[in-house]
């Protein structure tokens, strides 16, 4: 078909059409599916937007399909390692739960709660659980629900408690190697996973410390009675698992491998294998329940271990919230995220191959000259994307795709981009009522988003800290 225009590159306003289409489609998807938008609706929106990009590129600007196909192929090739890591995250999530590692962390954390430091403890415990599970959603829906009940018994405002829960959960989610958003930001920007995590600590630790100080001060000023409610959680976990410090050998081993800079894939593979062996030794009854068998044997042990790695490990116990606390979904649970990443890579490839990414980036950053300005633009785009598209995953993808080439042209390492994306897109998603994160967490905690927002100190501070550190120039390097 003969092109309708002889222009060689789309203008910024034409380049904005696929992005605008994605925003509209995502708004409709979230309205229709709510928290289930990631199960397929978001992926369809990405593919449809990619189709719009292809149509404009081929029929208006005359670009050959081969050019777009090559760009899509390159993008999908670049996410291969991220997909493997996500599968490993699914394996380690199931094996750490069934082996008793996560339940042990939770029990020890809950025993440390004191009414006089309740909010401080809540934030710290949720951070710990989120780090070891890699999921802010799981942390909020399990420990978070229990903490709100405990806080109500102590006379704490649900909004304050929710703020402490969310601050801790998103801190852990942000720096955990098991987190899908952490893997997504590192892979989309082209930054090694552990390099990304270590670099995030520069902005994340100060923000979290300030949040902890604020929650400690609020706790000390609050008059409360004896703690209640956590005993039920501890009793249920003790009834289903052998809670012992010996199971923490595996997290220690994992930490050593991370410090030694062992590749992420190998670290997660070894850790999940060690946790599987530990599950057979320390929690044979749990493995048997997962297998659905009646007697422990080689066959049931093998079946239970395989299901732990790839499937659902739900174990019935008292209360729906407590049952979900010890439920994991293995590699199968990672498939919607992998599905999303592949579709996002296809969309990003069409934008790249058509030159639309370059056109949008040039328009967005033509007045950006300073380091702080570049980071501010990235952070601002992440927050705006959360407001417009209502999904943190898509926001991370958009920021990394829009700014990656510009960071490279200005000589900055990609870890600065990946950190900027997480400091904005990941942590602010829960502060927006119509975002999938905001809707989910407010529903789970039974606290409106606008009520807990002022107390999510970590989430509010993170984007500001990212800009401040950039302005100060602390540990921001240029490529040699």
Provide keyphrases for this structure.
480 residues; mainly alpha; disordered N terminus
> Given the C-alpha coordinates, what overall shape results?
globular
Kindly report how far apart the N and C termini lie. Answer: 46 Å
Biggest β-sheet description: none
Overall average residue pLDDT: 82
What oligomeric state do these chains adopt? single chain
What is the N-to-C order of secondary-structure elements (H for helix, E for strand)? Answer: HHHHHHHHHHHHHHHHHHHHHHHH
Number of E-type strands: 0
Q: Please, how many helices?
A: 24
Return residue spans where pLDDT drops below 50 for at least 5 consecutive residues. Answer: 1-6
Structural class given helices, strands, pairing? mainly alpha
The helix content is over 70%
Strand content: under 5%
Radius of gyration using CA atoms only? 23 Å
Describe this structure in words.
By secondary structure, this protein is an all-alpha fold. The protein is 74% helix and 0% strand. It contains 24 helices and no strands. The protein has helices at 12-33, 41-59, 65-78, 80-98, 101-111, 118-133, 136-154, 158-175, 180-189, 193-220, 230-240, 249-259, 264-282, 284-291, 298-310, 320-325, 335-354, 356-365, 371-389, 392-409, 414-428, 436-445, 449-452, 457-472. Helix 6 packs parallel to helix 8 and helix 9 packs parallel to helix 20. The longest helix is centred in the middle third of the chain and has 28 residues, at 193-220. It is globular. The N and C termini lie far apart (46 Å). The relative contact order is 0.16.
